[in-house]
């Protein structure tokens, strides 16, 4: 209903523009009327088939029912690995959809999270039949759903992880750190996370030929370690 309200307000604006002879507004009005009809049938924005070019007419509305949905089933400890009959009912209900479904035993994981020693936490997780905390699965699933990935910057004072959209170029990724880096981008010095971890240092990566110089068209990959060269 909130999305319907947002669409109706924009329809009013575009109707005024249409009366003034704006052809673009006329087409936008057609698209928005389709959304209004869809919402009046108690459907959400995700299920309306719309051309990619036409989504621009609702992008500025940030429709609530356009947002991706993840279902998290919170179960008891004995159902943490295989789930239970309630999880199966959820899966059956959502079998025709593409929604992400996670199974997490929140109570036992909350207790394990209070342990100070990371080795103890891992041991208790394994005893529960789990190989990682549920929050890790949740974050990873959310990143996948939102088309996000991570790159790193490594220096003598700190190591930082930066979140970017998949498909970003090296200059665009640099802009996430600071706009000056994108504006004055020259090149990116790149190491792969697995290479850096297995070889142990930047020098070792260089010696092994695993240190790459990339330009403005380089598409940043998940786990890349970047050193940005720039000049402004």
Number of helices: 11
Strand content: 15-25%
Quantity of strands, as a count: 7
The SS-based structural class is alpha+beta
Whole-Å distance between the termini? 49 Å
Radius of gyration: 24 Å
Which regions have little confidence, pLDDT < 50, spanning 5+ residues? none
The total number of structural domains is 3
Order of helices and strands: HHHEHEHHHEEHHEHHEE
Question: Briefly, what CATH class of the largest domain?
Answer: Alpha Beta
- Specify the helix fraction band: 40-55%
Overall pLDDT score = 93
How would you sum up the global shape? flat
Biggest sheet layout = 3 strands, antiparallel
Write the CATH fold name of the largest domain.
Ubiquitin-like (UB roll)
Q: How would you describe the overall organization of this protein?
A:
- It is a single chain.
- The protein is α+β, with helices and mostly antiparallel strands and 232 residues long.
- It folds into three domains: 2-58, Obg-related GTPase Ych/YyaF, coiled-coil domain (DNA polymerase, domain 1, Orthogonal Bundle), CATH 1.10.150.300; 70-145, Rossmann fold, CATH 3.40.50.300; 148-230, Ubiquitin-like (UB roll), CATH 3.10.20.
- 45% of the residues lie in helices and 18% in strands.
- The chain contains eleven helices and seven strands.
- It has helices spanning 2-19, 23-40, 56-59, 85-93, 106-113, 118-127, 134-145, 170-177, 179-183, 193-199, 202-207; strands at residues 70-74, 100-104, 148-154, 159-165, 185-192, 212-214, 224-230.
- A three-stranded antiparallel beta sheet has the order 6-5-7. Strands 1-2 form a two-stranded parallel ribbon.
- Helix 1 packs antiparallel against helix 2.
- It is flat, with a radius of gyration of 24 Å.
């Amino acid at each position: 209903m909130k999305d319907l309200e947002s669409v109706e307000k924009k329809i009013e604006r575009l109707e005024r523009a249409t009366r003034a002879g704006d052809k673009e507004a006329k087409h936008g009005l057609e698209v928005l009327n389709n959304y209004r009809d869809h919402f009046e049938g108690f459907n959400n924005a995700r299920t309306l088939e719309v051309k990619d070019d036409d989504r621009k007419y609702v992008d500025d509305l940030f429709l609530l029912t356009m947002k991706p949905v993840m279902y998290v089933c919170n179960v008891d400890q004995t159902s943490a690995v295989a789930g239970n009959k309630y999880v199966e009912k959820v899966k059956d209900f959502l079998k025709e959809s593409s929604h992400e479904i996670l199974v997490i035993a929140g109570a036992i994981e909350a207790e394990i999270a209070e342990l100070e020693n990371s080795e103890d936490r891992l041991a208790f997780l394994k005893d529960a039949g789990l190989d990682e905390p549920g929050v890790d699965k949740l974050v990873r699933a959310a990143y996948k759903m939102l088309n996000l990935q991570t790159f790193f910057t490594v220096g003598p004072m700190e190591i930082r992880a930066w979140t970017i959209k998949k498909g970003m170029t090296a200059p665009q990724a640099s802009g996430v750190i600071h706009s000056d880096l994108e504006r004055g981008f020259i090149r990116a010095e790149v190491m792969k996370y697995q290479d850096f971890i297995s070889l142990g240092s930047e020098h070792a990566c260089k010696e092994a030929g695993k240190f790459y110089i990339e330009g403005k068209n380089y598409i940043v990959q998940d786990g890349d370690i970047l050193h940005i060269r720039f000049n402004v």
